[in-house]
Amino acid sequence: MAEKRNIFLIGPMGAGKSTIGRQLAQMLNMDFLDSDAVIEERAGADIDWIFDLEGESGFRKREEKIINELTQSQGLVLSTGGGTVVSKDSRNALSARGIVVYLETSVDKQFERTQRDKRRPLLQTEDPYQVLVELAKVRNPLYEEIADITIQTNDQTAKVVATQIIEMMDNLQ
């Protein structure tokens, strides 16, 4: 891969975007950023605090601004939040400025990976599994809409998935 094109990882919470993103960036000798971590750093607060104070809509406005800014970088592996694709502006920025990789995973696997994680505000509810089902109905078609590459992450290590992404990107060239 002669040029370092941006690689944007999208997919639901628990798909492995951050873990796979770090692995991929290391393998390609590229910078890695996690949009949620950047939002927290800039706000000086955790995402759940932002949700409590500003609601989901306030958080999404912050996210849209960060995605627009970060996607203008070069040579970046960017892990996005699960809900990033809800914003049409964010979807457009991602698809126009890099290779979009959809890390697809089942709701069962998401639930398994996130059930003990208290830092996911949308899952702090009586029935987090049902929340994941509802989010998948809305978001999965949006992930598919902008994906250049789709990879199933259910039962694979981060290194295996990162290797597959590199191979598939080489085939895109």
From TrEMBL:
Q: What positions does the entry give for Mg(2+) binding?
A: S18
PROSITE patterns with a match to the protein in the record = SHIKIMATE_KINASE
The cofactor binding remark recorded in the entry reads:
Binds 1 Mg(2+) ion per subunit.
Binding of substrate, residues: D36, R60, G82, R139
- N-terminal signal peptide: none
Which segments does the entry list as coiled coil?
Answer: none
Q: What cofactors does the UniProt entry give for this protein?
A: Mg(2+)
A GO cellular component term found in this entry reads: cytosol
Alphabetized, the UniProt keywords read: Amino-acid biosynthesis, Aromatic amino acid biosynthesis, ATP-binding, Cytoplasm, Kinase, Magnesium, Metal-binding, Nucleotide-binding, Transferase
UniProt-listed InterPro entries: P-loop_NTPase, Shikimate/glucono_kinase, Shikimate_kinase/TSH1, Shikimate_kinase_CS
- Reactions the enzyme catalyzes: shikimate + ATP = 3-phosphoshikimate + ADP + H(+)
Stated EC number for the protein is 2.7.1.71
What is this protein's function?
Answer: Catalyzes the specific phosphorylation of the 3-hydroxyl group of shikimic acid using ATP as a cosubstrate.
- Family per similarity comment: Belongs to the shikimate kinase family.
User: What is the official name of this protein in its record?
Assistant: Shikimate kinase
Q: Which organism is it from?
A: Frederiksenia canicola
Q: What is the taxonomic lineage of the source species?
A: Bacteria, Pseudomonadati, Pseudomonadota, Gammaproteobacteria, Pasteurellales
